[in-house]
Design brief:
heterodimer; A: 113 residues; mainly beta; B: 111 residues; five-stranded antiparallel sheet; globular
């Protein structure tokens, strides 16, 4: 079974803090993704990576950066957290070929106060 | 701009009846479609998918229908069970990488 783990289930941070969200997958997947989920907006792609040290912006990259130094690990960084970044953050991974389904981690509920 | 839309935020169905969840998309380049199921406090899990070269795919109680001319996708669950109560997201993909998700439909199956 594919396992995608995220470093924290719940996180509370203050405005202006630097926040690191870690994601690890154990299936040697090439592709990894960071989404945020907000009510009424569904899942929106922040960044994705198709290889080590490679990254691509998704639909809402502003205020975020990512790091992929190892194949199994993909980190999301909030350089200076703001209250509008309070959300559920979901990491996902998949292979680079068919089938296309993504495997998701359990999510991190981040609250910025 | 939302390329994948789920216009019904919620749906309630009696146990044993059919649940039909709908999804519309705008980009004719999408070539693969997926449905995900999400319980509270968990990540989404893959449910069923369909390639654009097909119009139907079935897996047990779940069937996905694709109408390319209408740019419409639907998920049928028969018979519906209380454990099916969850949020369902449809997703579409092209270029092999970026997924586009709908906003989700919350299904409640009433015992």
């Amino acid at each position: 079974d594919v396992k995608v783990t995220q470093s924290s289930r719940y996180l509370v941070k203050r405005t202006g803090e630097k926040v690191f969200l870690e994601c690890v997958q154990d299936m040697d997947h090439e592709n990894m993704f960071w989404y945020r989920q907000d009510p009424g907006l569904g899942l929106r792609l922040i960044y994705f990576s198709y290889d080590v040290k490679m990254k691509e912006k998704g639909d809402i990259p502003e205020g975020y950066s990512v790091s992929r130094e190892k194949k199994e690990r993909f980190s999301l960084i909030l350089e200076s957290a703001s209250t509008n970044q309070t959300s559920m953050y979901l990491c996902a991974s998949r292979t680079g070929v068919d089938p296309y389904e993504q495997y998701f981690g359990p999510g991190t509920r981040l609250t910025v106060t | 701009d939302q390329q994948v839309k789920q216009n019904s935020p919620s749906l309630s169905v009696q146990e044993g009846r059919i649940s039909i969840l709908n999804c519309d998309y705008t980009n004719s380049m999408f070539d693969y479609f997926l449905w995900y199921k999400k319980y509270p406090a968990e990540g989404p899990t893959f449910l069923i998918s369909i390639s654009s070269i097909k119009d139907k795919n079935e897996d047990g109680r779940f069937t996905v229908f694709l109408n390319k001319s209408a740019k419409h996708l639907s998920l049928h669950i028969v018979p519906s069970q209380p454990g099916d109560s969850a949020v369902y997201f449809c997703a579409a993909i092209y270029t092999g990488n970026q997924f586009y998700f709908g906003t989700g439909t919350s299904l409640t199956v009433i015992p």
